[in-house]
Each structure stands twice: as structure tokens, then as C-alpha cells.
Amino acid sequence: MSESLSVSQTLRRLRQRWESLVRRSPRRPGSHASLSSVTSAYARWAPVYDVVFNLPLSFGRKAAVAEANRTRGKALEVGVGTGLSLPDYDGRLTVSGIDISEDMLVRARRRVADRKLANIAELRAMDAGDLAYEDASFDVAVVMYVMTVVPDPASVLRELERVVRPGGTVIIVNHFASERGLRAVVERGLAAFGSRLGWDPLFPKERILKNTRMTLLSEKPVAPMGLFSVLVFQR
């Protein structure tokens, strides 16, 4: 009985937390998130991020890291969050992670310490659109579930092109808007709550393809239900 009650209480708290997160952000229909609103959103998400997002985002996360593990050298993860992906990187990759949210990074650093992940070079608070790294610093960059969140995706792409060496790899995982069908209807309904949720449900894939000089090598949908896509680019 006590175990059932505990599960019930946990689910109720998670539901209340979700409702609180959605209510507390100002509604700005049709606008893309500002840097401050993104920071605020993820400060609120940080305590429950792993519980809410670990499973639904795990498929794209594992696919992206598996692709990164085909390379060697230095890797950059943009939007490392709470560090859910960090244990999956091959030990022969030296990984740096950045995120705009210090609240998320606190949890990522704790994960690195708890798991004794010796190949994690650093975890730093940083704007993805203004990376504090030298040109051609990395062999591969992994950008998961970030492009619909940042205020200026074009600037992020420019920075990726700058900090990844020529011939290197950039891996982007993201949800892209559907043009038709039930998913398109649902996405249009969610769009009014984009700034509250911290991401843009109507983000078009062309917003990436038209703002980069990199070569798209492959694209594949991933679970759940093909909601996300993994794009692999050559710098």
C-alpha cells in the first residue's frame, strides 16, 4: 500500500510541476525564445528534466552519440544539459560540453563525478551562438534538441562551422515541423505555448539547411514515432 501511495504521490507532484512550468512563463505567441527566456525555462526544468525527458529523447541521443563515436579526437556537445549523454561517449573521445543553463550544468558535473567519466574535459556555461573556442578546435560537434530553443539558429550554425575543423562532423538532432497530417495539427496547437515550453514546435528543417555551408551526409528519423531527425553534416 505504501509503495502504491508513493508512486501516486510522485506522479501527482510531476503533474503539478509540469503545470507550474507551463503557467509561469509569459506567453508570446509567434515569437522565438529570447536568451533570457531560455535560461529561465531551463532553470525551472532542471530539477525534473531527467525524469520528464530522459526516455522520449533517449533514442535521438543514443543515435547521435553513436555517430560521434565513429570519430576520434575532440568532441563538443552543445546544449549538454544535465549530461544524460556523457556516459555514452567512447573513452577515446575527449568531450567538452556547454550549456546556457548553469542549473543544468550543476547536475551534469555531478553526473561526471559520480560516474568517474575521465574523458570529459570540461563543462562550461556558454552561449551556443557565441562560443569561446578557437577556430577548428573540435573534430566533431553534437547538437541535440537545441536548434528549436536558441534565439538565433543561424548564429549557432556559423559558430559550429567555425569551431569544427574542415572535414569534421556536425551532428544535429531536432524535431522539425510537419507539413501535413495529424502531427501538423498538433504542432500548430502547441505553437501558442512555445515560449512556455521552451521550444518551437513549428521549426522548419529548411531553417538549418539554408543557413549552413556544410554538406548534409545523412538524415534519419528516430523514435518515438519519427518525431525527431538526426542530421549528419560534414564541415
From TrEMBL:
It comes from the Bacteria. InterPro entries: Methyltransf_11, Methyltransf_Superfamily, SAM-dependent_MTases_sf. It holds the Pfam family Methyltransf_11. Residues 76-172 form the Methyltransferase type domain. One of its GO terms (molecular function) is S-adenosylmethionine-dependent methyltransferase activity. The keyword rRNA processing does not apply. Keywords: Methyltransferase, Transferase. Transmembrane segments: none annotated. One of its GO terms (biological process) is methylation. PANTHER family: METHYLTRANSFERASE (PTHR42912), METHYLTRANSFERASE DOMAIN-CONTAINING PROTEIN (PTHR42912:SF80). This is Methyltransferase domain-containing protein. It comes from Stappia albiluteola.
